[in-house]
Amino acid sequence: MINKIKKIFKDFGLSEIRAGMKITGKQLTNDKITVQFPEERTPISPRFRGLLALRRYPNGEERCIACKLCEAVCPANAITIESEMRDDGTRRATKYDIDLFKCIFCGFCEESCPVDAIVGTHIFDYAFETREGSIIDKEGLLEVGDKHEKAISKARQADSKYR
Amino acid sequence: MVDIEIEIDGKVVHGYSGETVISIADREGIDIPRFCYHKKLSVAANCRMCLVDIEGNPNPQPACSTQSSFGMKVHTKNEKAKTAQKAVMEFLLINHPLDCPICDQGGECELQDVAMEFGSDISRFTEGKRIVDDKEIGALIQTDMTRCIHCTRCVRFGAEVAGIVEMGATGRSEDLKIEPFLSEGIQSELSGNMIDVCPVGALTSKPFRYGVRSWQMNSIQTIARHDLVGSNIFTQTHESKVKRVVARDNENINETWISDRDRFSYQGLNSDNRILIPKIKIKGEWQDTSWDDALDFAANGIKKHAKEGSQIGTLASKNATLEELYLLQKFTRGLGSDNLDYRLDAANPSNAKVLESNISLTELETIDHALIVNSYLRLEQPMINHRIRKATLNGASVSTINAKAFDFNYRISHSVLTSPQNTVATLSGVLKALLDKNSQTLPDYLNSVSVHQTHIDIANALLNAEHPVVVLGEHVNGNKCSDQVATLVSEIAKASEAKTLNASLTGNAHSAERVNFKPENGKNALQILSSDFTAFVLFDVYPTFDCIDSENAIEHLSHDDAFVVAMNSFDDESVLNCANVILPIASFYETSGTHINVDNIAQSYSASVKSAGESKPGWKVIKVLADLLNLQGFDFTDSSQIADKALSLTPNTSEIEVPISNSKMPNITTVWQYTPYASDVVVRHASSLQQTRIGQISEASVCKATAKLLELSEGDLYKGVPVNINESVAEGCVFVHTHLPRQC
Asked: Which residue of B has its CA nearest to A70?
């Protein structure tokens, strides 16, 4: 009997609506957490593994020496490398293709690279318009690397004490 | 045999007294790290990696130089041994660069493996590393001397196996360098083995440089087909291309070595000069076509031009497989012809008995005298020469009867220079001396023979030896009296109780003999090539190089009425000129097959890679052609069925007596020998081998007196080859050693 009376008071006193409005009222003044992508972006860990890139040394020489360790370690067989001796006697890749459909962004290639040539960038929003576009070649990878070198080296710097 | 018992790591093992600890451990499968020790080389004990703890010794001892004795207790894995091994590893890595990712040896490097197991995780060494200049040592071996750990395996290989001391250690301590003594680079015909023995990346294969990594390749067991040894090899392939060839152990055939020809010839396969598509000639114009059309064209042409089977002549390369030779002789004989031959380079392809080889390769090491007749064995058959060299190291002596004093890698005790036209007389002299010593009655033909002191010396050497051998080499093929020479050699062997080795049957000639790929009543190679037959079948024949009288051969092959079916693996101008249809066939390593070697061992192998372009294995092409011509008995589905059938054949042994007579020979003759890197079509296309010193040889040696007769002077061209006047050549002959096509 008493419970019934309590319920009538609760229902007619709009207590649940008031509780809800209280939260609404609180959130009205709080900072918003929805990110307006692509104008806004969430912060990314320095260890984030996005689109792959090939880096160069500061003097412009490409880092990759075609040791093929990344090709060997790649669990998805996404990397294809061909190598030969360049005229100056150094070992260089003549072909470095990554199939982005196959790539699973595990980052093993980066781990295995003895010269920090192949790296994961912070780029995760990219698209291609043709099927063949999924294969990114050496020039493409170097271009990504050149474009984002600042961000790449900053991320390596940030993570260096844990490596 | 087993006479001592020792204990290694608590395991009781058996050995022979005086045997080293490491060889017992190897036999028992106990792993001891090592760099300088190699089972086929002498013990140097300079890397110190194999230090083990031997109870009773205060210091660790090297297992490679410590002889085992009864009751010895060895620990390879206890604290003391491990500490010693780790310390040695640290010392070795002081100067060794740590850039394994760019080193070609990476992934198959002994130093890398041992460092992973015995090395330390971190380096305590912060000082500068030593850098050593690289030496250019030829087209086959790439040096990276900074990586050298001074194990001296290459130095010992040169001194002990190749017989030419080319690499050496100069300087001391920090300045110690392994380098060639001469700036001309490495010249040995076995030099490629240095790559195999080098435990690090200091010596690597130059044609293979920076191409593929060791883990990317498949290793396929196969047989090298260039010589009559049939060395066991691995072809290492990547993406259907042979990328490298390395030796495979077979104690009875090639031990652990292979010749450079076997190692680097694979380059020829990837040459641009391969025939990839069937071609037919219509109204003098070559057209690419499909296999069906080309085979129909070939079959119809044979039907039309050879209405009588006897109008067909078939010639095959001596490097063809047993299967191909068997099917081809069956094909030719099925069409009703007995005109077939493989002896394209023979001046006298007679039906006389072929000199048999009755000594095995391993037995060659135990001989105490060898008489080498008509052969530059070192370049012709490097692996056979190596066995004879091993015998000479044990005290055997060697004498030669050759047209030129060749550069052997052992001492020659008696050498007779004799021109081809005098070879019969010289051999008769030796035989007469032998029979005189044995007080045997002389056959009539020896009565008028004069015996010189050198003949007596050779006869004495043969008679004094317990296990002599007589080796007959390739030069005899170009001799018009080759049958007489072979007969005399076998008589000499009989009189001196010597074994014989016939090194004139090169390539896969033993297979050709097994399937009787030569005429019984029909025409032989010389007669076929000067006949007016209306149809010819050529199997991997390149007339300019292979035929002894190439001009005449090409002329007869290209006459208007002749229909020529050529099955070739490489493009060749002379074939294009004379053939009517070219069927592309698979080359070495692209087809399954069988090789019969000098010991009569038949070794079958499977294809290592797919045949190039649209080419097909030769045996399949012959089989389909036979089917199209409605020949019976070609229902094979696999090359092993053909091999079984072919191996069940017994060769016809002819009993024709060869009379020894003073046949008329020209006053001046030519001995034409190809360099080993021009001996067959594949190796001729191997670019790196062609750049070596041996590959570049091209000189016509002639002595002063003969030069005067021929009106030649130094630098003139004799049959297209520059003349070199020196006195190491027999009078009355010109010795041409070249990679250029033969001119008659």
From this structure: B101
Q: pLDDT tens, B287-310?
A: 999 999 999 999 999 999 887 878
pLDDT classification of B2: cutoffs 50, 70, 90: low
In angstroms, the CA B443 to CA B657 distance is: 14
Check A85 against B209: CB less than 8 A apart: yes
B1 pLDDT band (50/70/90 cuts)?
A: low
User: Can you tell me the mean pLDDT for B545-570?
Assistant: 90
Nearest to B101 among A67, A84, A85 (CB): A67
B residues 93..122 contacting A (CB < 8 A): 99, 101-102, 106
Interchain pair A67, B210: CB under 8 A: no
Spatial separation of the C-alpha atoms in residues B432 and B450, rounded to whole Å: 9
Measured from the Cβ of residue B665, the count of other Cβ atoms closer than 10 Å reads: 17
Residue A73 in contact with partner chain B when CB distance is under 8 A: no
Residue pairs between chains A and B whose CB atoms are closer than 8 Å: 26
Q: End-to-end distance of chain B based on CA atoms, in angstroms?
A: 59
pLDDT value at B316 more than 80: yes
Cα separation values, B391 from B377, B397, B463, Å: 14, 8, 17
Q: Tell me which chain A residue has its CA closest to the CA of residue B217.
A: A72
Q: Which backbone phi and psi does A139 adopt, to 5 degrees?
A: -60, -45
CB B730 within 8 A of CB B417: yes
Of the candidates B212, B193, B195, the residue with the CA atom closest to the CA atom of residue B204: B195
Residue B221, chain A, CB below 8 Å: the answer is no
Record: contact B101-A83, CB cut-off 8 A: no
Residue A45, CA distances (Å) to A55, A118, A154, B381 in order: 20, 18, 11, 66
Query: To the nearest whole percent, how much of chain B has pLDDT over 90?
Result: 78
Query: Is the confidence at residue B688, as pLDDT, over 60?
Result: yes
In this prediction, the answer to ipTM > 0.85 reads: no
With CA atoms as reference, the chain A residue closest to B105 would be A67
Per-residue burial over B256-288, b = 16 or more CB atoms within 10 Å of its CB, e = otherwise = bbbbbbbbbbbbbbbbeebbeebbbbeeeeeee
Mark yes or no for CB contact A72/B215 under 8 Å: yes
How many residues does the structure list for chain A? 163
Judge: A67–B106 Cβ closer than 8 Å, yes or no.
yes
Please answer yes or no on whether A85 and B215 come within 8 Å at the CB atom.
no
d(CA B141, CA B743): 33
Report the pLDDT averaged over residues B84-88: 92
**Is pTM beyond 0.95 here?**
no
Q: Which residues pair with B235 in a beta bridge?
A: B220, B245
Tens of pLDDT along A11-28?
Answer: 888 888 999 999 999 988
What is the predicted pLDDT for the residue at B50? 93
Judge whether B496 and B463 are in contact, CB under 8 Å. yes
Q: What is the pLDDT of residue A95?
A: 95
DSSP codes of every residue in B140-200: SEEE-GGG-----HHHHHIIIIIS---EEEES-GGG-EEEESSTT----TTTTHHHHH-SS
Nearest-by-Cβ selection for B210 from A69, A83, A114: A83
Which of A67, A92, A95 should one mutate to test binding to chain B, selecting the residue with the greatest count of B CBs within 10 A?
Answer: A67
| pLDDT tens digits, one per residue of B340-380 | 999 999 988 888 888 989 999 999 999 999 999 999 999 99
Residue-by-residue DSSP string for B465-530:
-SSEEEEE-GGGGG-TTHHHHHHHHHHHHHHTT-EEEETTS-TTHHHHHHTT-S-SSS--HHHHTT
Phi–psi pair at B227, nearest 5 degrees: -125, -175
Q: Are B219 and B258 in contact (CB under 8 A)?
A: no
Contacts of B162 (CB under 8 A, 6+ apart): B188, B189, B190, B191, B193, B409
Residue B654 pLDDT grade (very low, low, confident, very high; cuts 50, 70, 90):
confident
